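Box 3.1 A note on notation
Throughout this textbook, protein chains are presented in two layers. The first layer is the amino acid sequence; the second is a token string describing backbone geometry. Keep the layers aligned when reading.
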Amino acid sequence: MTTHQQGDKVSGVGDGVTAQQAAAVLKKVLDDRTDLDEYGADKRLLFALQLHQGIDDIHAVAVDALTDGGQDHGCDLIYIDPDSEKLIIAQGFETPKSALAEPKVWKAAALNQSVAWLLSGKPEDLPSRLKPAGEAIHQALQDGHIKEMQFWFVHNQLESVNARAELDATAHLAARVLQDAYPGSSPERIIGLDVGVHTLYRWYQGSRSPILVTDEITVTVDDCFELSSGKWRAVCTAVDTAWLQNLYWEHNGTDEENRLFSANVRGFVGVKGKKGAINNAIRKTVLEQPGNLFVLNNGVTALTGGVKVGAPGPDGRRVITLQGLSIVNGAQTTGAVSADTLRRQTEAGQLLIRFVVCDDPSLVSEVIRTTNRQLATQPADFRSNDRTQLRLIKEFQQLGGIAYDGGRRTDPSDIAVAPPANRVVATTAAKALAAFHGDPYIAYNEPGRIWSDDGLYANLFGDHTTARHVLFCYGLQRAVEQAKTEYAARCRNDPDLKNNPRKVHDFLQRRGAVPVVVDAVAACMDTLLGRGTRDPFMLGFSRQPTLAKVIQHWHQVLKPIVPFLPHLAPALQRGGAKGVGEHDRAKAVEDARTNFAGMVESLSDQDHTKTAFDIFRQNLGEGAR
């Protein structure tokens, strides 16, 4: 386990940029992110998370991840990424002072409370604000689905030795606690990150440039050949695994920022857990038959700022000089061959590698995307060129210029920029579709299956799927998320909130509650429409609906039925965990859904509810395509 962080002196951030200049750049960037203003003091924290994790839809993440408020016990944010099997627990601090200094160290030390409260105790003993996250963390740890844990201290001041010492202490404490509590499934890696001006600036710069390792690097090879075409140039050769190992350990082995893999859609995932089997096989090949590694492995693709091939030496070998390097494809291979035990191996295998120079940002993004098609990190990438997604992009434009990405990942250079207000993110929309059409468990726990499972994808995204219906479902999910945010704010303003409002708040704060509500509202459609629905995929709002208008329509529907949401709690037994049998889980969801639909139907004759439902029907354009 690693608890190390590299960093420059507090006087500057490297590359000739002072801390004051970096702080000014970050202030301008954050001022421009007006879409994050609603999160107040957590704005910088969410911005850091978005940059570090490459998150397209940070607002959908914020709904679950933010815990800031009273009784948060050092946890302003708790983020679980099922794809990378990573858990991030963060504490934020924002001072209004313009002068840079080291922040109070007790803020970093407060993360120790997160270990004591979240990891040492039982989820049921946690304060209500932390209980949903605690349940999700314990279930993921129990199932072995947390491979890496990070503790962040995010602030707008200088990073310091004292803060890093506190973070290291937190990481060491967490390692001891988890090894005792989950001896067979504790995370492989636990680290602390002091994310001040220095680090956040480098993350921001990294979002604008795919190459973070800028050193001059040399490698001696037997021979090579070059290719070029217009905007790119490539040198192809074979390198010893020992050279890759040295690169990994110099720039990545103990550096939690994965700088060597900055242009990769995901860093090395390890050799344990559900995603490590292939990497373990690569490592076994290096150990047992290194001479065959070249023909048994697809090799590595790396971006570089420049490449120079030297003339053959007396022995016929050449020296290749690279201006910086980022492994865009081959992070798993590089990590797998770089185990400390393999570094001591006398017989080294060889791997195919190509060094690519390209100055066109759009082409670089395409290289990153296409060379990683075999990874299941973001399965939406695999569908971004199919005819349904391309048709939906056009249909959304015809609805009034709504920006729909069709599953295409946001360009790294745009990740730090405020998204368009009238934007629909395909990965979030897919979750809304799945939940509305009866799969809330998949929507929350296995969203990647929507894109990778051909049958499931065809059910949700086919000729029967229109942009109007996608917007219909997406707007419902956003409205539920906003209701969750509103109840969280209500509880913060009134800590003594009691009775049913408190129950509604507690239910909505549970992880997985949003898709369960979307599913339950879908079960009420006959009541909402006042008639049967011949085809749910034909449902959509009429005219030229903006996203804001669609969300407003759903708000009117949700108002009278929100008090009944706590009755959906059985659908969240154990947080929707896999530990519950699939049949039992499906029955619990179905029973809760049926019970809820019955309650909503009983409301339909009441005047205020009838009015809300009538307005909803007037705005609906069933059958409109």
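The two ends are 54 Å apart (CA to CA). The CA atoms of residues 126 and 507 lie 15 Å apart.
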